[in-house]
Amino acid sequence: MASSENIYTPRQQYVLLILCLVALAALILVGLGSYITAFLGAGILYVVLRPWFQALVHRRRWNKQLVTAGLLTFAFVVIILPFTALTLMLVSRIRLYAQDTSQIMAVLHKIEQKTGYAITTEQNVRGLVQQSVSWLSQRIPSLATGLLHFTVIIGLMLFTLYFMYTQEQGFLRGLRRYLPFRPNTLHELGESLKNNVNANVLGQALISLVQALLTAITLQLFGVPDAIFWGVVSFFMAFIPVLGTPLVWGPAAIIKLSQGHTGQGVGILLIGVIVIMNIDNLLRILLARRIGDIHPLITLAGVVLGVEIFGILGLVLGPLLLSYFIVLIKVFERENRIRRRTVRAENTP
């Protein structure tokens, strides 16, 4: 008669249970891979809007569902729609430049005439521009990638945000219960998330907006074509520390100088160096107590990492990943130190 006793030891059952959980979690992540930005975006919006939710619901005792509906409407109208419009404008104009490289070639020919050096051929320029457009199209979410996909991402983001607020207590209780961290570690991770979102969403978005407006006004003032478009480009570029907006107004000044408009070129350079670059430092000083303190190296490396993985949302998610990695390293170091002290204390007669 065959035995009905389980062939696994309790420890083997425990290990196999963990392996099954990891395998199922990996399958879920693979299945949701193209929509993972919706959940990450919902988490970011949750942190950004939570102070308002707490003030209205927990302090003033307003209706939770009504406040949540108002916050969702605000997020969609004030944050999601403008950001989508900017990305759509960016994609459409980049594709326009990709289809017609005559404007780019005209500028290059003038630079060649001034310097006496042949830079490249039109075929090489067209190939380079098309490769750049292909790379950007893969990393900028827009209606161009598919209306259904875009709608699902926005819908998932808003639905997730809705349940995070209406079931906030259960959501936070679940985090504390199922995340494999001590309470003080969870507190550190929460502070890191808040610090990073404040620095890279609230603070950096405000700084980028001011720099973009100044760049657009400067380029318009000195007769640079498509000044509004380049202002939009500078908004996204401003998220990159140090390089940022100089990648926009710097070439514009060079082009003006190569065309013989010395006054306009020098004017763009002066305003760019004296005003646009320094406004970043000034605003960071003014907002230092309200936004998180993130090292520029973490932001720069995080942007490179995040854009490659998450697309345009990587401007925020990349630095967040690096910040969490650094926090977990510190936690690991502290836990090892405590464990060594405990072992020494136990071994001390």
UniProtKB/TrEMBL annotation:
Keyword ATP-binding set for record: no
Pfam family, one: AI-2E_transport
InterPro entries documented for this protein: AI-2E-like (IPR002549)
Keywords: Membrane, Transmembrane, Transmembrane helix
Membrane-topology annotation of the record: Multi-pass membrane protein
Transmembrane stretches, start-end: 15-48, 69-91, 143-165, 201-222, 228-254, 266-287, 299-332
Cell compartments where the protein resides: Membrane
Family statement: Belongs to the autoinducer-2 exporter (AI-2E) (TC 2.A.86) family.
PANTHER family assigned: TRANSMEMBRANE PROTEIN (PTHR21716), TRANSMEMBRANE PROTEIN 245 (PTHR21716:SF4)
Stated name of the protein: AI-2E family transporter
